Q: What sequence folds into this?
């Protein structure tokens, strides 16, 4: 009997291993009583990070006004707070009409690409990437074209390579800065180069900046919208990471740059936003307080802060290993860790991730799931406390040592 519930073929080229087969296996082991160390996803709550109290109070105090739908773009105080943040950063050509609030940045990635793409249109995406970008281009019948950000170049892109990938079908370029999964923070010169390429070829710039204030040491975050003037720039951010409020599901995208010629596209965005009625209303009331209040993230990423010291523990753990290498993350809450294939020539990231889970009950994300063409990297989150991370690397070394004795 034929399967009447055959899934869509559009999903054949879609992967999201961060919450895929390995994560399902981890849950099976957990149900059997094992304690799993989840390093596969950047979810601050389970690691003891609380949403700032002022944000919680702002949401609670406005629950009475949150029971109906709001405007499809979001409540005005939230959008106006985003505008004020952009203006503080020197981006003066935006108003609340240019801000769309969504159920996290994830939903807005889908809406912005769906409003743009026709079948076969191309979007330039970094490799490694946050795989939702590649998946969403594919699901909206576009063609993801990856530009390499190689470990040998500290995961910075190559402008000449990007330019060679541009074709008449290229509609946009994705920039993830600070970067997930690598932790790279792009230089001003690099971002200026990407902006000039985008302007020259009239590409829409999708700037994923969800980790905008999560930078370490001398790294400096530069908002892409301060550099893009002669084409359209879509800047994404939200409450999930910097404000440790993943479950609120509140993100936003701000359009700036060449707004004069963006009317039909923004109308399409408005239509798509209307079709889903609106995003989560209670969480939106936390935006104004979050952006206008005390920025506690600065203490967390400064020396002595929880995120800074956890990052240090990762760097030290890799340094002690006989097999691992790392470009120290300059931003975000991740480390993209390499394995020396000269010592372990048969190393496979998926097999290692499964072994690490089964033997040491540690869940990591294989590097190839971030759309790389190499298989000797894996990603971990730097959210656990330093002592836990130190222990994690000791247990990783046990698995890696066993490979040399096979």
A:
């Amino acid at each position: 009997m034929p399967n009447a519930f055959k899934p869509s073929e559009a999903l054949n080229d879609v992967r999201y291993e961060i919450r895929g087969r390995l994560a399902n296996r981890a849950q099976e082991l957990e149900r059997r009583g094992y304690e799993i160390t989840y390093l596969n996803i950047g979810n601050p709550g389970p690691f003891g990070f609380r949403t700032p109290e002022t944000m919680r109070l702002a949401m609670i105090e406005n629950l009475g006004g949150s029971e109906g739908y709001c405007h499809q773009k979001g409540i005005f105080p939230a959008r106006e707070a985003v505008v004020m943040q952009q203006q503080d950063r020197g981006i003066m050509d935006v108003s609340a009409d240019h801000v769309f609030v969504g159920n996290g940045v994830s939903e807005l990635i889908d809406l912005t690409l769906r409003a743009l793409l026709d079948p076969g249109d191309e979007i330039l995406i970094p490799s490694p990437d946050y795989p939702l970008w590649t998946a969403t281009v594919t699901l909206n019948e576009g063609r993801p074209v990856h530009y390499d950000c190689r470990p040998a170049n500290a995961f910075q892109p190559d402008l000449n390579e990007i330019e060679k990938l541009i074709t008449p079908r290229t509609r946009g370029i994705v920039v993830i800065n600070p970067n997930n999964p690598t932790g790279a923070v792009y230089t001003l010169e690099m971002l200026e180069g990407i902006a000039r390429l985008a302007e020259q070829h009239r590409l829409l710039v999708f700037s994923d900046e969800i980790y905008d204030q999560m930078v370490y040491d001398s790294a400096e975050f530069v908002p892409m919208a301060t550099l893009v003037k002669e084409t359209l720039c879509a800047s994404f951010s939200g409450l999930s990471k910097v404000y440790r409020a993943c479950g609120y599901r509140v993100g936003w995208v701000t359009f700036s740059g060449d707004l004069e010629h963006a009317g039909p596209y923004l109308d399409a965005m408005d239509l798509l936003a209307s079709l889903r009625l609106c995003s989560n209303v209670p969480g939106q009331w936390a935006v104004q307080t979050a952006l206008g209040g005390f920025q506690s993230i600065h203490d967390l990423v400064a020396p002595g802060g929880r995120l800074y010291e956890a990052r240090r523990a990762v760097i030290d753990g890799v340094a002690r290993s006989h097999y691992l290498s790392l470009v120290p993350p300059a931003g975000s809450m991740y480390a993209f860790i390499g394995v020396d294939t000269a010592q372990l020539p048969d190393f496979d990231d998926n097999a290692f991730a499964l072994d690490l889970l089964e033997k040491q009950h540690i869940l990591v994300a294989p590097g190839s799931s971030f759309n790389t063409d190499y298989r000797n990297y894996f990603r971990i989150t730097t959210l656990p406390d330093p002592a836990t991370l130190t222990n994690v690397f000791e247990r990783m070394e046990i698995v890696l040592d066993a490979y040399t004795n096979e």
The CA atoms of residues 73 and 287 lie 14 Å apart. The chain has a mean pLDDT of 95. The longest strand covers residues 170-176. The two ends are 45 Å apart (CA to CA).
